[in-house]
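USER:
I would value a second opinion on how I read folds in token form. Give me a protein, with the fold worked out from its sequence. Write it directly below this note and I will take it from there.

ASSISTANT:
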Amino acid sequence: MEYLYDGWFKVGSRTYNGRVFEYVVDKDASGAIVEDADGKLLLVRQFRPALLRESLEIPAGCLDKPGLGFKEVMVEELAEEAHLDVKAEDLKFLVKFNPVVGMSDSRYFLYYYKYPHVGIDSLNDEDVDVTEILWVSREEFYEKILNGEISDLKSQMAFFYLEYLKNNDLLEEN
């Protein structure tokens, strides 16, 4: 494929019904909302160049390594970003969606993981991107969404999706 722009992001074009459309050629990705034994939820703090600041988000990663699927990427990301040893079979699939349908056809798979221990906040000096690991209550997570600390769509969606499932007894925890 020939790109209109070929940098960190790639821009392609498609013709449909005689019209030419540009689109971002983005990688598929997966993320996980992780709940510890006390019911706290995992967030990671990392720098985001597009925002020119750090962002609080759920752990996530792009499918950018050959041979790794959505679950395998998530297992790797949970180990790198949050130092959690998770098996692929322990990740519960929640939902698949297209995060930016107006500009990309990328897919995003969201998982849930029930961490059997109490999470511990810590600084992270072992990952290039993630600087801090935080475990917050549901109330704190929601407050961080309202005050703009969590502006990331996948993290907001994960929180509200999990709340819906829990409030309606639709989440089967292992």
Residues 14 and 21 are 5 Å apart (CA to CA). The longest helix spans residues 153-167. The first strand starts at residue 5 and ends at 6.
